[in-house]
């Protein structure tokens, strides 16, 4: 827990003027849970921007082990649970509220433990905290069952001998700084956690942050991979090429989807439109029915929340939901992109390209887009013996793959570019049963054909086979131009 003190000290050193807004106090967990006269005025509350309760077995076991060890020592010194950061403010009814900025994971786990002991005849006070996220409910149930298994027959738990340091900030800005900086329960806040909090706190009345928090939580686990794909789509462009730390994109996510967003309140969506001039001088506009443009500028609050929820839903529909068996493009994704290709880097670029395509042109011609984007992007598996992260990025930039999707006027123009692409197959890796050879065999198998074993046949025949199969598959599908 000592790292909290260092981080808090760093915040104050950087902003010495904020010292008057920060109060510290040592109290017992009994006082905090029981709201005794020695407690702090105000009702503990989990703000909408808090992430769900997520402590796993490792953290729960560690806490129970520490409590058991402390109980055995019979020490007169109180057990120290760590620091709890609170934002104290009045709600719309004029009542004091204590928003829990840091400490939710520890407090919730201790509350679960007290609830379990109460079922065994104890009389422990419980905090009145409300958990909105279904993920929190599931993890609370899971950890309750885990504690039932871990709890010894007798645990001498005295909340009056468990101390916490309460750090109270009166300023919302300082509360935000603590939330952004501190580790929570040993599990560092992710970039997605930070941008959620950033935009929920930017929502002003009459809009309700709780409503948008529920919308955010409804995305489930699809938001993390979606945000990573959005970084690729927004960063890999010749207009303004940027790189990001793919293995640890936390800071890049915060910068792109929080710090660089504009303070305006408008919920803007940028869409493709066609202007038609009539013979009599009249003008009509046809607006695409898509949601948001992947590379559009973003405003704080509702605009960025809706943008991320839109792309999260699109990601789900494209990659996580089942599709009819006759959809070859979907089978190609499930059987080869996800498995046989054995390259997360190529898969990431492919998913980014399809997200960008569907957000711009819709899903009417998606089957063809799936196939021809696969041919171009996964040609790198045939060109190189080894596919690397840098190699995929450079390949994307060399051929302007994402830019062509973003700037083509219609589906037909993009398809013409993708179909005109040529490449040479590198024979390295085709000699044995390596990744490249297995990849080729899986493509042939998908279309019910056997792969030629000879290297020269593969070199000269693979792409012809692929394009022939693609053309046969989509020949009966009419192409739309919008």
Textual characterization of the structure:
- There is one protein chain.
- The chain contains 20 helices and 9 strands.
- The protein is globular and about 80 Å long.
- Helix 4 packs across helix 5, helix 7 packs parallel to helix 10 and helix 9 crosses helix 11.
- Helices cover 51% and strands 11% of the residues.
- By secondary structure, the protein is an alpha/beta fold.
- It has a 5-stranded mixed beta sheet with strand order 1-5-3-4-2, sandwiched between helices.
Record keyword descriptors for this entry.
alpha/beta, 482 residues, globular, two-stranded antiparallel sheet
Number of strands: 9
Could you give the order of the helices and strands? HEHEHEEHHEHEEHHHHEEHHHHHHHHHH
Main-sheet strand order equals 1-5-3-4-2
Kindly, what is the distance between the CA atoms of the first and last residues, rounded to a whole number of angstroms?
A: 57 Å
């Amino acid at each position: 827990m000592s790292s909290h003190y260092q981080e808090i000290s760093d915040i104050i050193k950087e902003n010495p003027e904020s010292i008057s807004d920060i109060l510290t106090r040592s109290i017992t967990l009994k006082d905090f849970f029981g709201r005794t006269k020695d407690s702090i005025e105000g009702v503990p509350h989990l703000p909408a921007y808090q992430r769900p309760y997520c402590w796993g077995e490792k953290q729960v076991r560690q806490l129970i082990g520490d409590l058991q060890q402390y109980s055995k020592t019979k020490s007169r010194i109180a057990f120290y649970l760590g620091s709890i950061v609170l934002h104290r403010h009045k709600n719309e009814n004029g009542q004091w509220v204590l928003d829990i900025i840091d400490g939710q994971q520890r407090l919730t786990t201790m509350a679960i433990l007290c609830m379990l002991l109460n079922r065994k005849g104890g009389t422990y006070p419980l905090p009145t905290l409300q958990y909105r996220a279904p993920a929190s409910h599931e993890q609370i149930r899971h950890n309750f069952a885990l504690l039932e298994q871990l709890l010894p027959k007798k645990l001498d738990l005295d909340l009056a001998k468990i101390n916490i340091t309460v750090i109270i900030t009166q300023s919302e800005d300082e509360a935000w700084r603590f939330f952004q900086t501190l580790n929570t329960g040993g599990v560092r806040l992710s970039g997605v956690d930070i941008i959620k909090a950033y935009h929920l706190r930017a929502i002003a009345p009459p809009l309700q942050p709780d409503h948008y928090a529920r919308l955010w939580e409804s995305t489930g686990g699809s938001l993390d991979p979606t945000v990573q794909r959005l970084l690729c789509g927004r960063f890999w462009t010749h207009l303004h090429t940027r790189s990001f730390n793919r293995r640890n994109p936390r800071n890049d996510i915060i910068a792109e989807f929080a710090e660089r967003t504009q303070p305006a309140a408008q919920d803007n969506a940028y869409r493709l439109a066609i202007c038609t001039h009539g013979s009599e001088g009249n003008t009509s506009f046809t607006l695409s029915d898509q949601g948001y443009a992947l590379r559009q500028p973003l405003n704080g609050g509702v605009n960025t929340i809706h943008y991320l929820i839109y792309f999260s839903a699109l990601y789900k529909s494209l990659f996580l939901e089942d599709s009819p068996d006759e959809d070859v493009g979907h089978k190609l994704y499930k059987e080869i992109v996800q498995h046989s290709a054995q390259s997360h880097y190529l898969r990431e670029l492919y998913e980014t390209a399809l997200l960008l395509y569907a957000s711009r042109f819709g899903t009417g011609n998606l089957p063809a887009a799936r196939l021809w984007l696969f041919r171009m992007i996964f040609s790198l598996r045939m060109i190189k013996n080894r596919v690397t992260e840098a190699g995929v990025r450079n390949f994307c930039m060399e051929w302007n793959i994402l830019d062509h999707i973003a700037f083509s006027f219609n589906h037909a123009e993009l398809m013409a570019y993708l179909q005109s692409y040529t490449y040479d197959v590198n024979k390295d890796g085709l000699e044995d049963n390596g990744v490249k050879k297995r990849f080729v065999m899986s493509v042939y198998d998908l279309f019910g054909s056997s792969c030629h074993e000879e290297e020269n046949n593969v070199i000269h025949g693979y792409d012809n086979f692929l394009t022939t199969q693609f053309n046969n598959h989509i020949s009966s599908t009419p192409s739309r131009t919008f």
